[in-house]
Design brief:
The structure holds three protein chains of three kinds. Chain B is mainly α. Chain B has helices at about 1-25, 25-45, 50-75, 85-95, 105-110, 115-120, 120-130. In chain B, helix 3 (about 50-75) crosses helix 4 (about 85-95). By secondary structure, chain C is an alpha+beta fold. Chain C has seven helices and eight strands; from the N terminus they run ααβαββββαββαβαα. Classes of the chains: A mainly alpha, B mainly alpha, C alpha+beta. Chains in contact: A-B, A-C.
Amino acid sequence: MSLELIRDILVATVPLLLIFPTLFAFTTWLERKALARIQNRIGPNKVGVPLTRYGGRFSLFGLGQPMADGIKMLFKENIVPRDADRLFHLLAPILALIPAMLVLCFLPIDFPWINNIQDSVKAFMLDGAVIFFFAITGLNTLAVFMAGWASRNKYSLLGGMRAIAQMVSYEIPLVLSAVIVVMMVGSLNAAEIANAQAGWNWFVFTPWGLAAFIIFFIAALAETNRSPFDLPEAESEIIAGYFTEYSGFKFALFFLGEYIAMFAISGLAVTLFLGGGAGPGVAALPWLSVIWFLVKIFALIAVMIWLRGTLPRLRVDQLMGFAWKFLLPLSILNIFIAGSALHLLAGDRLADLDEKQPILRQLMEGANPLVVAGLWIGALLILYVAANGLNQLSRAKVRPREYKYAE
Amino acid sequence: MTEQIAFWILSAIAVLGALVAVRKRNLIHGVFALMIFFAALSGLFLLLLAEFIAAAQVLVYIGAVGILLLFAIMLVLVAIGVPLVYSIGGAAVVGAMSMNFTFLPSRMFTGVESFVLASIPFFYWRRRFSPAAA
Amino acid sequence: MSLLGGGIFKGMAVTLRNFVGSYFYKDRLTTNDYSWRPTDKLPQHAGEYPKEEGEQLRDATTVTNYSRNFPMLLHDGSEPMDTIRCVACQICERECPPQCIYIEKSTEKKENAGGKPQFYPAKFDIDVSVCMSCQICVEVCPFDAIVMNSQFELSTPDRFGGLLLRRDDLLKSNDYYHNIHPEEAAARDKRIAEEKAAKEAKKKAAAEAARKKAEEKAKADAEASEGTPDIQEDAE
């Protein structure tokens, strides 16, 4: 265990541990202000510099609110129900936080300090980085079950079961949408996927990539229990679901885990679909790619907050029906369409494709523009019609509403 | 050198996890120890530079099989901290659920295709409808 | 066929308009941002309610005149207990849903502002930790004695005694009521005056009717008594 290895490991991980919790604090503030403005009110605007008497004078638009919330959570009494499993009650929030934090390493953000360390420490250079990502976000379900079970509360358990069912059902469209990108690149390596979209060849601009991005985004909303899929943690549903019995800092850890998971999944979406660091000016200033990556993550987070302020909550049967009857067939169809499109694009060049290079780029280089246009339009049409059809099929079978007393 | 240390640590965790999994009285604790065992196995796969298998191990075993076990325990057992005999029954259900379903109807049929079994109703009817037993 | 997911986009457009509009059209914001008050002006100890109405006014004028918090008792003059409107009829105590009002009637009557001897409340306690501000007590009071106050700085470190408002804390003048809820107070005063005038008119009309009836009876008696001498004269 050489000193250099330890130094490399610390350089690779500690900045992430510092940057993302700070971004988390900023995001909680941003979410409360943005939601408030959407709902015609001002968000928190009193807390400027906490623990001083001048809180009101320098209110700084309420930027001290996350700090104040953190201090409040630390000071709260740590209540554990009498018959609860103490060990698992303690372990569950930790286990909810660890996968979210761990998965941040797999994002191919080219921080300047990372260039000088050895390649074996860079997690995103793993040849199976994308599938590791999904494997580790699957550990969230375990934490949720542990939280629901250890509280020794029927309602927490039911809430936990519903949450696990939701997470497990939405993992499938999530992974299947990522498969599209893997098909287009030919590798599971996150860095290669990000580099394959250099310039403006983002995968979201292909029709199957666009469909996959939308499916991925919806499934990501459901994985992190965000509105409109926040049934497990909404206050009007089974109190707070699986974290009813958590108070104080453990609740803060769950909260932190959820937001960091949001960052992680947005980061993956940016890597897979939105180019991951590609943007104007990157060729000249390499560190600009970090800025672009973070800007894109924040754009996705802003859309998540926007959706939270817009949409009502889905019921659990509507949620499950949406996953199994709409998203899953659509993502499978998407895979077929992407495969056939790639096949048609390749034509007879299939044999001399270089497997080490991104596949789509090679195919697009020597392709007939008419064929490409035709494939694009055809794929868009088929996907749209299929989505509409699936929507009609998976609608609840209800008669049109009859109003007996209203006119 | 670091690989050696990593190997011994991961193996120790794996063995400990497996031992705790079979010895624990509380079934849910046992399942969680089993998941620790799966995670350690995944680490061992990583040591062998088999990244895909490691990821698949976590994804399939912890993410799917583990959750399946937990759901099965939840749905089958009602009380918490059940005695061993009921947990064996639960395991039997889980085992049946993970079996190959294509053979299930034929096995069911061969199971009941027995003249001895089919003759049991006749004994009952004889007893019921015989005049001597009235 | 409309765009799939079009409803979601329309909704998102609405919320975006709301978001952007809340920066430009400030009057659509429902939050009432009261100015930050220095800590030395707030009540520091339990029971230390601002005694003069000037201090309360400073508190109350930072909210709109539609805001309500907890009830208060009204009096009509300068000396609260001489002009208190409440006659301890205990209707509000009975009607209060969480039963947070506790009234003890006085044992002897006293003259109030209207000149009539009435009972008065020896004790009138409202537990504001229980009161749910439903205003049922205001609705049922036949004497317009209890109305809603808008004072909100009631925090106290003592969670039992500090949140029990006694009669003297609850008594506020009608002028204060006009100050915090001008429209409602004016409407209430108008209604009281109209009822009083109607009562006066009815009394006068009843007096008129009674007088007229007495007059007619007297006339009838007079006519009756006048009629009999004629008969007697004929008989003679």
